[in-house]
Amino acid sequence: MRTIYTSDAPGAIGPYSQGVVVNNMFYSSGQIPLTATGELIQGTVEEQTHQVFKNLQAVLKGAGASLETVVKATVFIKDMNDFPLINDVYGEYFDKHKPARSCVEVARLPKDVLVEIEVIALVKE
């Protein structure tokens, strides 16, 4: 088991890691719209979703994976009415490659953000 840490994504804000590689699979922690320096993006749900994907790309790269090797994504959203907006941004990152996905509305997310995404990916190395 290998713990992933990259300074290109926000550090863990609790007793967990950015992600873990087991054998050839990477399991990310949920990414919220914090910058790598820990600044919270409080803009629109689209702006928050773009920041989440920047973070996912960084931790995936740190693990030796990429968006193209994601096999499963789980999307947590504060308001299901935002689903079409989040889905449009999601589709910009998963255009040709379309991993399995679950999307659930939750009562509350860390730091009261609008979206959080976690992924499972195949490690290329």
Describe the protein's architecture and organization.
This protein is an alpha+beta fold and 125 residues long. It contains 2 helices and 6 strands. The chain has a 6-stranded mixed beta sheet, covered by helices on one side. It is globular. The mean pLDDT is 97.
How would you describe this structure in keywords?
about 25% helix, about 120 residues, alpha+beta, globular
Secondary-structure blueprint:
Blueprint: E1 2-4, E2 19-22, E3 25-28, H1 45-63, E4 70-77, H2 83-93, E5 100-105, E6 115-122
Parallel strand pairs: 4-5
Antiparallel strand pairs: 1-2, 2-3, 3-6, 4-6
Helix pairs in contact: 1-2
What is the overall silhouette?
A: globular
Widest sheet: strand order? Answer: 1-2-3-6-4-5
What's the alpha carbon Rg, rounded to whole Å? Answer: 13 Å
If you average the pLDDT, what whole number results?
Answer: 97
Structural class estimated from helices and strands: alpha+beta
How would you characterize the largest beta sheet?
A: 6 strands, mixed
**Helix content bin:** 10-25%
Percent strand:
25-35%
* N-end to C-end Cα span: 14 Å
Count of strand segments? 6
Low-confidence stretches: none
Count up the helices. Answer: 2
The protein's oligomeric status is single chain
The SSE order reads EEEHEHEE
